[in-house]
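Field log, afternoon session.

UNIT: design team B
ACTIVITY: writing a sequence onto a fixed backbone
BACKBONE:
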């Protein structure tokens, strides 16, 4: 069963006469670690936002075709409800952080979903361990490094236990060491925690060792959708 199914999908930003992405047919399967790559402007972010319902919900514009997440049409589901199925960390992850302290940030997502204080405590401890931020709950978010703030953004979307994690250009503000650490973490979430992963990256060398599928976009279309040979998975 597909975790995400995009069918005959075209999307036009407001006022655009040509689609930003077109003729998209893509199934993301349970357990996939799928990488979307391609040149600047080819539609990677738009495709990512189509998966999460952010286009057209946040951006307006017009879509044709269908997108299903866990079998539900994104047009039929409210974005907050989708967030418990598909977690998104955008390239500008700092805009997703809305509280003062690390602990509050992760609790916030769960409070909004009606989790009890006990559930919040238990789940917070689990996600902080997953992303390597244990013991930092009292820290001010402004005192964290960029890599730590990004892991906090990941922790806060994992808090509500989504089965899919989408990361748009997650390494754009990281140095090579931070990039390697980030993909090691995401690889672990995929392999050991069973989370289906979609990563957008224009640069492939750091991410391919963890990926099983590679999608290439050119001019708004999927040019290639291929398995990653296991020989490239050296990590
Ligand atoms: P990528 O992520 O591969 O760089 P995008 O998905 O951001 O590509 O952009 C795909 C196309 O859609 C580009 O032609 C871009 O200019 C256009 N586009 C992106 N965002 C908007 C927007 N908010 N309004 C209008 N056009 C947009
Ligand atoms: P912008 O002027 O940045 O294009 P938009 O109207 O497109 O603003 O977006 C409205 C708000 O929704 C912004 O704060 C943006 O960060 C947020 N947003 C966009 N995509 C998502 C997403 N996938 N999940 C959550 N919030 C999003």
């Amino acid at each position: 069963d597909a975790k995400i199914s995009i069918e005959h999908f075209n999307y036009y930003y407001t006022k655009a006469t040509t689609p930003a992405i077109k003729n998209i047919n893509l199934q993301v399967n349970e357990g996939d670690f799928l990488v979307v790559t391609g040149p600047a402007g080819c539609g990677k972010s738009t495709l990512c936002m189509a998966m999460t319902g952010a286009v057209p919900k946040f951006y307006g514009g017009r879509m044709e075709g269908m997108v299903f997440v866990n079998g539900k049409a994104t047009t039929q589901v409210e974005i907050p409800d989708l967030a418990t199925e598909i977690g998104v960390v955008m390239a500008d992850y700092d805009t997703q952080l809305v509280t003062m302290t690390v602990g509050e940030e992760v609790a916030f997502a769960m409070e909004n979903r009606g989790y009890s204080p006990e559930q919040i405590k238990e789940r917070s401890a689990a996600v902080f361990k997953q992303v390597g931020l244990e013991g930092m709950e009292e820290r001010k978010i402004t005192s964290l490094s960029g890599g730590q703030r990004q892991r906090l953004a990941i922790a806060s979307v994992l808090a509500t236990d989504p089965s899919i994690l989408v990361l748009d250009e997650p390494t754009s503000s990281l140095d090579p060491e931070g990039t390697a650490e980030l993909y090691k973490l995401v690889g672990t979430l995929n392999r050991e925690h069973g989370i289906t992963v979609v990563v957008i990256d224009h640069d492939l060398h750091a991410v391919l060792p963890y990926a099983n599928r590679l999608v290439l976009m050119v001019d708004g279309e999927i040019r290639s959708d291929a398995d990653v040979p296991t020989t490239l998975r050296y990590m």
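LOG NOTE: The pocket of adenosine-5'-diphosphate (ligand 2) is lined by residues 49, 52, 54, 58-59, 88, 95 (CB under 6 Å).
NEXT ACTIVITY: expression trials, pending approval
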